[in-house]
Amino acid sequence: MLWNIIYIGGDYLKIKWKLLLICIAIPLMVGGIAGFISRNSMSAFEALNKPPLSPPGWVFPVAWTILYILMGIASYLILTSDAPQKRINKAMKLYVLQLFFNFLWTFWFFNLELYLFAFIWLVALWLLILITILSFSRISKPAAYLMVPYLLWVTFAGYLNLGIALLN
Q1: Which of 1, 26, 79, 127 has the greatest number of C-beta atoms within 10 Å?
Q2: For residues 70 and 158, what is the distance between their CA atoms, to the nearest angstrom?
Q3: Domain limits at 112?
């Protein structure tokens, strides 16, 4: 069927819907669990002094949902590529590691209010995302491109996190 075929990067790919949905669900679940764990910290967050350009609170869940979906699609493209399995495995280990760092940042920042430590952790996360993008780019350029908005958002989050660390 036509709706089961997608054109990406010069190739026609048959969509494996179950795998695609699992790949999207994993980062969404990680983000959902992190949000659930930190939900009681949001009132304290609202009371913090924030740097200029801080968006309203509703922007964060919207942005993260979009980013998690893009990350899931990127991981799907890596898993379904024709690259050597060793290269795919390395890329996916990096992907899982950065997702783990992403999850823990929420805990450090919101639950423990360790703002400076969370910023340092975010720098490590940023580096892991960059390395993941580079690894993905050797397998699938579209997958790497789908991770770029995530890197940009984490860059912005670093600005906000450092600002909060310095102002509070």
Answers
A1: 79
A2: 20
A3: 2-42+62-167
